[in-house]
Description:
A: Helicase, Ruva Protein, domain 3; 48% helix; B: two-stranded parallel sheet; 11 strands; serine-type endopeptidase activity (chain A)
Amino acid sequence: MPLPAPLTEDQVYHGCPSEKLDFITTDDLEDLEQPCGQDRVLRALEFGASMQAGGFNLFVLGPSGAGKHEFVERFLSQHAAREPVPPDWCHVYNFRFSDRPTAIRLPAGEGQQFKKDLNDLAEELRTAIPATFESEEYQARIQELQEETAKRQHQGLFDIQEEANRNNIAMITTPAGFTFAPMRKGEVIDPEEYKNFSDEEKQLIESKVEELQKKLQHTIQQIPRLRKDVRERIHALNEEMVQLTLGGPIGELREKWSHLPDVVDYLDAVREDVVEHAEAFQDSENGPPVGLLARYRANLLVDNADTVGAPVIYEDLPNHQHLTGQIEHRARQGNLYTDFTLIRGGSMHRASGGYLIIDARRVLTQPMAWESLKRILLSGEIRIESLERLYGLVSTVSLQPEPIPVSIKVVLLGDRMLYYLLSHFDPDFLDLFKVEADFEDDLDRNDECYELYSRMIATMARAQKMRPLERDAVARLIEHASRLAADQRKLTAHDRVLRDILTEADHWAGQSGADTVEASHIQQAIDEREYRASRVRERSREQISRGVVMIATEGEEVAQVNGLSVLRLGASMFGQPTRITATARPGKGQVVDIEREAKLGGPIHSKAVMILSRFIASRYAGEGELSLSASLAFEQSYGGVEGDSASVAETCVLLSAIARIPLKQSFAVTGSMNQHGEVQAVGGVNEKIEGFFDVCREAGDVREQGVLLPASNVEHLMLRADVRQAIAEQRFRIYPVSDINQAIELLTGLEAGEPDGKGEFPENSFNRRVAERLAQFAEASKKQDDTGDVNNNSGGNGSD
Amino acid sequence: MLLDGSRMSYAALDAAADIASKTGADVLGIFVEELNLLRSAGFGFAREVGSESGVSRPFGTAEIEQRIQRLAEHARRALAVAAARYGGRHALSITRGSVVDEVLALAQPNDLLVLGRVGWSSAPGARLGSTAKGLWRRSPGRMLLWCESQASSRGRVVVFLNDHDDVNRRAIMAAADAVWHTHQPVTLLLGAGVDIPPDRLEPIKQDLGVSDSDFRVRTLPSTDPATVVQVLRQERAAQLVLSRDCTLLREPGAEHLLATLNLPVTITP
């Protein structure tokens, strides 16, 4: 197998061709209406926003910082502007069931007028009705009524008293009622004297007294009916007066709002209620109770007077109360009171008829918010209930406002993991969020993209109110976008990172007094960000340069190779070499992954070790038995090891240990390997190469060192300028390998050797030496087994 | 202060205590164990018909004695409480006999006699009790017929005057005392055909101790109760002061007028 040629400077970096950027500064470029490369998400949004059927709410998936929020809000605002303005909603007092305020729907913008009309009406009631009761007409009529009643009530008693007097019987008032007794000259006869009366006289008196008592009883028992009659007549009079007073204003309002039957019904209910409570308006000094007048006002819950098109609401704290609204309370002398005027609408109310954008993670972390959101979407109406009531923590009487029907499109923003978790674990989720809008992480980097990407940068810069960028600065940013995408043929779509670099570059441009942002400012922004995040990396490198962590960058060693790993800390990542060592001796065909045994290795790494174990068995043991007991370890690695990117290095170092052939320490190796020895792509190649380059540089001059990486990773390379420089000067080489044999040859300088028809490798080839050594292991094992068998047999016989 | 244990009599007691606290007068309570009532319970056939329920039940001497004692005790405590509030002297006289006679026997010309306009008979709907009817013409001094009025505390003291100077003078002096207590504005209500020249109004104003803004004169167009009530309402009258010798009370319907007026009335000799 021919050895690969080291990569050239051009192969490890895809520069931005300046001829593709046809402008001087970004001021020459027009704004980009839609972000480039996001056609999938745009079509999903277009479909989701237009789809009227239920359950077609949207979940916009994408990494955080991809600019989902701004993008979705901009799109929806444009889309919603063409849609009709939704209606206003208000709550009014329910005169039949006072704990269930009624909801009234009004055309958009009429809510304010309705509220004002009711305020005016209440104000009029406050003055006009007491004035009616103060009027001479009313006072005269009420006086007449009272007179007549008193007369009727008293007349009966008076008649009885008169009749008693005529019969010389006194009607005496007692503390609890009346009694009758014979009298003479206005004074009750002494009972002792009465005893001297004849029986006839006594019978006459007593029968008269009895008769009077019966009449009195009858008369008194008529009094409640009389009083009731009076009350009814007074009430009727009050009603009549109030009706007359209200006739004008209520009539006008009824006519004005005749197009809304609900409002007309409410006005009729107001009139009935005022009549019902007419007496409460009679206090001319203090006026009617404030609480009574408050019943005739409206609580405007949703006011779309100033809304253009359908509303697009972003709820930044999507908790239960903010979404569904709440019923507030007012403290009075240590007690809490509420009424329908204290009902507050939530963002679901405001967004009804339009769109509500919510961060999925936030809504999921708020107690009951997710359940409440689903409940509203499933039922199509908003029911305002407090959290403590939902939890059943309180049982006090409170308001139960009439649910308000809702037609809303909810747009959740979240990362992909959340979407997949919800899809898997929440049975309602896919019923309610049928539209998946998946944000692209990267954009294709081709000849057509340069103009669009430049315009996107220009749009971003203008939105940030930055200095314009020069062409070179845009080119540098495009190159960096490729680096961020870790792909020469891609550009990152990560909005936040680009925006941050732009903002920072603008700052440095300002510091240097420049009018435009130049390439050097972009580079400075990149370098400064790198530097700020470099503390851990530098400490790690320092450990290597001081020899605390042992990494060899020159010479040859048996059973030792430089692997490459990547560490991610926060938003930054860096690569560094790790020494991988191996041991090999005869055994039962097992390769011990020390990392796994120590529970420091992840499952993918374990899988990779198993693959290489099977690779060795299949390649070198043929149909025989593999006699090998080997071990692999990442030296001085105290954290976890995961991934299969070290499997090429592990294979090489294990084979080196078996064959006792030294490996060049000037190379570092990355790449995964399959069971046929083919080398496969891995991630983080740029950081790995740069990490090894930095270690080599700190160990002395960079010369003859290099990295072996999978050939399929070449198009992912976007290396730093100093690495490229070393490559150009052939001080640092990068070899793209596609097969394990290439790696072996580069690391050992020996021919790897292909097997012939009998499966034997060429004489003196690396593989031949490995195979011979394994055969020796097998022989040694066989002898050991035979000796063991003999011993066992002897032992067996002996025991007989 | 006539106490009979009725709700109205306790309201009158509060008013009396209030006046006493402002004038420094003593409060002398009188509770009369009404002889007619005690006697009426002594008959074997005696029954009491409840004023609210109309239910007839047996009525005995022992029972009424006990009730009267309880009421008297209650009156004593109420008087003590009211007096304690204003800190003046007080006494309660308990006598047995006719209420009117006992009160007249005790009252002196310089005393202010305070009583509820209606006692126990308010329950069945009476608006002027028999005691008030028996006393207002015969009281040796001023008499305040108290009632729990809905009239505003910011209302006016209305004094009714006619063309009899002595009678007017007594009414004005009584009104002056009321104004001094309450700082309320005053309306002079003149009987039909009565005219008081401006030069005589000034001394009246001085006697009353009110400023021009708190003083006005109005003539009563007619003396029928409805008109009087209407005018008093228009004047926002908080209390009415008049002499029992004035034309209003000399007419046949005087008791009806007093029954119709729903405000405290001071009647001067």
